[in-house]
Amino acid sequence: MINRILVAIDRSQRNKFIFDSAVSLAKTIDATLMLVHVLSEDEAGYPVLPTYAYYPMLDDRDYEAYQKKLAQYKQWGIDFLQNLTEKATEAGVETEYTQLTGHPGRTICELAHNWEADLILIGSRGLKGLKEMFLGSVSNYVTHHAPCSVLIVRTAVDRQSNSTSIASQEKSATNNHTGERLSKSLLKEETI
Description:
Blueprint: E1 4-9, H1 15-29, E2 32-39, H2 60-90, E3 95-101, H3 104-115, E4 119-123, H4 129-135, H5 138-145, E5 149-153, H6 156-191
Parallel strand pairs: 1-2, 1-4, 2-3, 4-5
């Protein structure tokens, strides 16, 4: 039975769909939600510590500016989670939230273990092939390391990019076959 659902939220455009899916599912099965946002240097908008040329030099003003931006970034995350928690509570779903720092996949799995989640709801960036291999995939990591079941929520954008990718692969394969036929016919003409 699913009583506790951990919902991984980030700053992407897909959040509304993931959040709405989580609230709908929790209402249907009368489950509790835990919203988690993981602060990660890989996330868009994460403040970067300024460094100069080959030798990292940091003066007090730079460090203070960085700390101020980081504090604003963290506060944005808390405000965002509080807003979503209020919306879920208004919809009749018991909801809590937390914001953590670290590697998103590992952090989500650790929280799922500690909070004793029955299900993790997570979005997908839609990475495929080499992009997924080199850039990494949080949803892939969570799927393989989670202590509970994982539901990957795909948006229309994910499905569209996947079908576009399949269509381009099919087109490429068709072009390859056409090229093979053309090269075979040219070989035949040369031998005649």
